[in-house]
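Quarterly update, task 2.4: shikimate-3-phosphate-bound model.
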Amino acid sequence: MNSFIINGPGVLRGSISLPGDKSISHRAVILGAIAQGRTMIKGLLESEDVLSTVDALRNMGVKIDHHKEEGMVIEGVGLYGLKDPGQSLNMGNSGTAMRLMAGVLAGQSFPSTLVGDDSLSQRPMSRVVEPLLALGADISVQNTGYPPIQIKPVKRLKGVDYVMPVASAQVKSAFLLAALCADGASRVKEPEQTRDHTERMLRGFGHSISQQGDWISVMGGKELAGAKVVVPGDLSSAAFFIVGAAIAVGSELILKNVGVNSTRTGVIEILRKMGASISYLNENTICGEPTADLVVSSTPLRGVKIETHQVARAIDEFPILSIAAACARGKTTLHGAEELRVKESDRIRSIVCGLNELGISVEERLDGYSVTGGEILPGEVNSRSDHRIAMAFAIAGLVVSGSICIKDTLNVRTSFPGFVELAASIGLQIYEQSGSHRG
Ligand code: S3P
């Protein structure tokens, strides 16, 4: 089992670019595969999660190659051009890959089975089965609601209106992707706005997708056209260093070309409310996605109440926000985030156990946490095979007098290959140990 050792205290300084956005990367590969003609993607995140999507599409006959100049080049096969893979498609650790691919496969003329690793095999899939059944798909999961997902061919999907019970961009995207193959118009309404990368990218691939009030509407049967895509840096990866620079006294960091789509910037709003100094430079829009260089410097933080309307727009950042909360004066409370229980680990549990290990007082709730800021002490944290837990607690090492050991860190490769090297290049004293530390 791999571990990180972090020696503190430390300071973050410098100017870095982040790896490509994971959500946008999955969508770029998928839309490129089911479009007609060639798609060229610059800045694609080549992490294990995105490569699960790439491999699945290759197994269905799509040519996807890495070129030095053009980036990832995909020869699209059109909406109905995917081929029977003749085997189960393994989505590894990736919930996004599994749920989005379920949407793609729902309207195909061949059967398919989606499987995943141990963690993914314990994540709820009924939420994605329900809307696809509504569209007329023949799709099922075991009665536990967990993978594998089995899909059988049907004659045609039929456009419907669907009201989502859970705020989930993966479910919304699965519905929209399946609706591309349905007869007529389909509409979906979400309980809380979630990341809208699928909607933006569909427009970039020439598809007219419209918003009427709370309803997102898409017309089926119209082919997409291959496109040139440039993927911005991932704000969810940047968030580790934003918090690091905010909490480590004397830090000053520039994070270049980060995606700042307002459906993702809950983390910046929450940190600013806590007193963090984060400013935008060189704001731009690339392929329909807003970007900026972020400038962060250390300031004292204060505890805040996180508003429930901010939860969906910061859903992946609560592990690292809990580290900011541990370094803040006073209490930070989070409610309405029960979704954290069904991520790559039960993140509420993982955060509570990790903070307790490091001497921070935290109250666990069914739908959140309440963290009282204090002194983070040296200690050992188990990531529970969750990449965002591993990276969040590695950042805590910046404010510790001594060392922190993070157990079980291989999963960082699912979203952030090169994390250790990039973190070390700006001042985090982090080392990776392989094999020897078994826990
Ligand atoms: C994602 C949506 C979110 C997020 C995940 C990526 C996406 O999940 O947590 O990391 O790319 O659509 P939910 O859709 O389950 O909220």
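Highlight for this quarter: The chain has two domains: 3-20+232-433, 22-230.
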